[in-house]
Design brief:
The complex is a heterodimer of chains A (360) and B (254). Chain A contains 13 helices and four strands. Chain A has 360 residues and is an all-alpha fold. The two termini of chain A are 31 Å apart. In chain B, β11 and β12 form a beta hairpin. In chain B, the strands form three sheets. Chain B has a six-stranded mixed β-sheet with strand order 6-9-10-3-11-12, sandwiched between helices. Chain B is built from nine helices and twelve strands. Chain B is globular. Chain B starts with a helix and ends in a 6-residue tail after the last helix. At the A-B interface, α7, α8 and α9 of A face α3, β8, α5, α6 and α7 of B.
Chain lengths: 360, 254
Amino acid sequence: MSVPIESPVSYSNVGITRWWQRSVFASQTAYVTLALLLLLVVMHFASPYFFTEGNMQNVAKNFSFIAIATLGVTFVIITGGIDLSVGSMMCFSAMVTSMVMSGLSTPDMPGASLFVHLAADGKTVLANMPGLIMLVSVLAGLIAALIVGLINGFCIAVLGLSPFVTTLGMLSIVRGLAYVVSNGRGSFPGGPDAEYFYGLTSGTLFGMPAPFIYLVVLALVMAMVLHHTAFGRHVFALGGNEKAAELTGIPVVRVKIQVYVICALAAGLQGIIISGWLGSAPANMATSYELNVIAAAVIGGANLAGGIGGPLGAIVGCVLLEVIRNGLVLAQVNSYWQQTLVGVIIILAVLVDRIRSRMI
Amino acid sequence: MITAAAAGQPVLELTGIGKDFGAIRALHGIDMRVSPGEVVGLMGDNGAGKSTLVKIIAGNFPANHGEIRFEGNAVHFYRPIDARAVGIEVVYQDLALADNLTAAANVFLGRELKWKFGPFAFLDHKAMAARALELFGELRSETRPQHLVKQMSGGQRQAVAIARTRLSNAKLVMMDEPTAAISVRQVEQVLSLIHRLKEQGVAVMLISHRMPYVFAVCDRVIVLRRGEKRADKPIRDTSPEEVTALITGAKEAA
């Protein structure tokens, strides 16, 4: 310290924050992680099949199917907002992607001549490098999500509408659009690039399910962004005290729009991945997934009042939900119990956090 | 002690400042000067025009009449950021801190230090913590940069809010009821924080209702009543009784 402290003002009512009251240790995420580890041990003794490689792969794959969207919605929740439109967004993005993919692969569709043409024997031949159609169609799906995210962000940050109402409306709008463009039937990723698409969405990379790899990469990026960039700090500040954020000159409107766009993109990517696994994008795909996604984020420690949350919590929440689901199946419990149990766990997780923060 | 006379040029000079809200005259013909290193108490009953005056100086809205000179230059503020740019900082009554962030993060909120890696910019945690520690040291506060504001006492929170004004090297700090929400022993700390600012040549305007604190820390007191300045005198030439009389209107002017 460059300035010596003469007569430091001391005050007895201020203790030093102990290490267990700080950072990870003092968070709901820590307690839920502990609960998860406990559950894994219980599962190990309850079922010999639980820790088999096949089942682990299954669990990893299944929770990755909602975890990427959970990362996105966690951003929004940290700012004190909520996004109910993620389920519809998954469906819409997936549908746009598969429609563009099959459209561009059909020679007489508009624009398709850039990508495919009919050979003399009547077969469809690629006019370009392989994989380009897939790239363009995935981009199209993500751009659709981006636009919806921008509209969400604009309504909430600029027009000042409540996030709950705005995204509830968007849930309905986007779902309706998905039915309109598909005429209620759903669409299928087809054409010469479909194999790549299935490989990259439901295949394996380095012996692990591909979605799991994407999840890990995105979670690491998210941790970096949240804790080591000014944007991340502003996201937390916005959730902690929005008025203070404004007074200190943080571009509140811009940050808000950005988090809704991030959330929409994450949901869009998630939807595209799910459609690869399903092999189609039906119009009722991912219905009410927003509840699972928000539940996972909240169980993992994201605070709906804003200011708290992170990628680790989002993933732990998703894993916990999936392990419970998987465990109930292995234990041959009626799978209808799952939903009830998830609700109990949401309330328990928040309750334990409340009791703990009162004790400190 | 630096007095107004010895310091020469005032940091802030208001001439004939007036503000109307429709037909209501909130402020009328306010003249005042604040010198570097001077602590001025701004007093008045509710509705006397204190907050209107503070908001004009802080750039929340412009005055209808009169002129503001800052360090000798005429200035026009349209937004708070304009006032901040020349060196006017406000410590708000609720302090405007984000509870979920650390002390250092709050000090640097909106002005983060970064290091660049290609096109990416990352927070420079070390530099921010070191500078925050330095600022808390200058204020002789035991506040630790890495602690969460949530777990801090009222006095420590004040230190964080005041350290933020030191970060930008503000020349005029306006404090709106800094002793409102804290305990008696923490008031001591806040008053000593004001002394630290004074030592460093910062002009302080203290907006408060609490007579003892104003008399303990201010060099001069200005009393507003019904939008007009009723008194502006060195603290040693007046008494709490006189100021009370001026605030309530028992005495018209002094």
